[in-house]
Amino acid sequence: MLQxxxxxGGYGTTPILKDISFQVEKGTxxxxxxxxxxxxxxxxKIISGVLKPSLGKILIDDKExxxxxxxxxxxxxxxxxxxxxxAFSSTVRETVSIGRYPHQKGFFSxxxxxxxxxxxxxMVQTGVKRYENAYLENLSGGERQRVxxxxxxxxxxxxxxxxxxxxxxxxxxxxxILDMIRKEVTDNGLTVVSVLHDINLAALYCDExxxxxxxxxxxxxxxxxxxxxxxxADVYGAQISLQAHPEQPKPQITILPEIHEPLKDGKITxxxxxxxxxxxxxxxxxxxxxxxxxxxxxxxxxYENFINRTVKPEYNIENVQEExxxxxxxxxxxxxxxxxxxxxxxxxxxxxxxxxxxxxxxxVIVTAGIGGAIDVSKTYEREFPIRIGxxxxxxxxxxxxxxxxFVQAMITxxxxxxxxxxxxxxxxxxxxxxATGTPTDSLxxxxxxxxxYMQYGGPITPxxxxxxxxxxxxxxxxxxxxxKGE
Length: 486
Ligand SMILES: Nc1ncnc2c1ncn2[C@@H]1O[C@H](COP(=O)(O)OP(=O)(O)OP(=O)(O)O)[C@@H](O)[C@H]1O
Prior knowledge:
Blueprint: E1 2-11, E2 14-24, E3 29-33, H1 40-48, E4 55-60, E5 63-64, H2 70-76, E6 77-80, H3 92-97, H4 113-126, H5 141-154, E7 159-163, H6 171-188, E8 191-195, H7 199-205, E9 208-213, E10 216-221, H8 223-226, H9 229-236, E11 240-244, E12 251-255, E13 273-275, E14 279-292, E15 299-310, H10 320-330, E16 338-343, E17 351-355, E18 362-368, E19 391-397, E20 400-401, H11 403-423, E21 427-428, E22 433-434, E23 442-447, E24 453-454, H12 462-485
Parallel strand pairs: 3-8, 3-9, 6-7, 7-8, 15-16, 19-23, 20-24
Antiparallel strand pairs: 1-2, 1-4, 4-5, 9-10, 11-12, 13-14, 14-15, 14-23, 17-18, 18-19, 21-22
Helix pairs in contact: 4-5, 11-12
The structure holds adenosine-5'-triphosphate.
């Protein structure tokens, strides 16, 4: 659809763009990224024909841009430049209708049904129809932006060039506009080339990204090929970290502030851990990085409070999340700052163990209810329901763990728990084989993220060695404690 070949150009004698080449297929959404002043808008002006390149050429549908007549070009390509606060004296409908001018034949041509349909459709799509008779000057910046996007859509061309279309828009409208553009690209084969400042939105919505640096192409490709941590940090001169989007296979960046509240040089001590009547608690006063399979706030995150709550064996609530949140409120915990587990084992039967290691103290806290212990290799042949019981394990470390170390520590802890069950000869009462756990076991690894950096957590690493030993010893004791009271 669009070919950009060896473009050089700028303003007057000042060269801005240097040898830019790329091409965009029909039905593709290309995002142009790059730091302020790198030449994104200049490139868009050259593609749209507003600015002549000093070298190179632009082809649209294999035809050179310079050979298009104005009307022909307006039907083929729509341009939405960066908007500035100018004075507008027309209504929303009039402004959107301007998009139809390239489709008018001759000076006295009739406004057709097709024109009317395109204008209405564009106003509905962008959510501006309800104030179609309002004057632009009386609209907010974001509303005005959507009117111009409606005008671009009404033009019904195959190629749209946009310069920061989501400027001034709140997140709901950013989503609405980009969803709409994405839909036009996917469903109707529209080709979009857009300058975008928001790298994360670009990664989410664009098929391809062009990363510019000082008037040149630094990278071109799919979002995961272009958004490399070092490359983005280098081009923008910013500290960033790259993660996966929670729901889509798209990279997302997070700024790492240089000036920030330093993590309080907090250490977890035995004083932070208390056994109460209804729960075991750890209140740290500073956030720990946590990976867990807890009932409340599972997954990876930062939390200050941890509770392992004792519930009655007959606890059977439909909306556990809601009930748990209410419980936390009543017990004086912030639900958004607390990881919560649940067990039928009484809190007083919890085992708390402290270990000194070369990198800092480690605490292992375990409650073990093994009434429902099962052999995981045989569960495929059993009938449910089974008896109640849960082994809840917390490993709290005064150390800085990599993500890899967190996951490896989870594996190591699970292996150590299973070894404890084997050691104590805990049986699966249905299969009469050694149990490996219970159906509802939960595990939590938390680290202060201060002190020594631990990249690995496998069995033979400093982290793994203490996790293995600590979880084995604490689980063994917790099983004995449980059996004493049976
Ligand atoms: N009309 C102009 N006359 C002369 N120089 C200009 C003109 N417009 C832009 N420039 C210069 O060209 C360079 C590239 O500007 P351009 O607007 O293309 O950057 P950009 O990447 O779009 O920046 P931003 O992210 O800030 O919008 C800048 O140094 C700018 O000062």
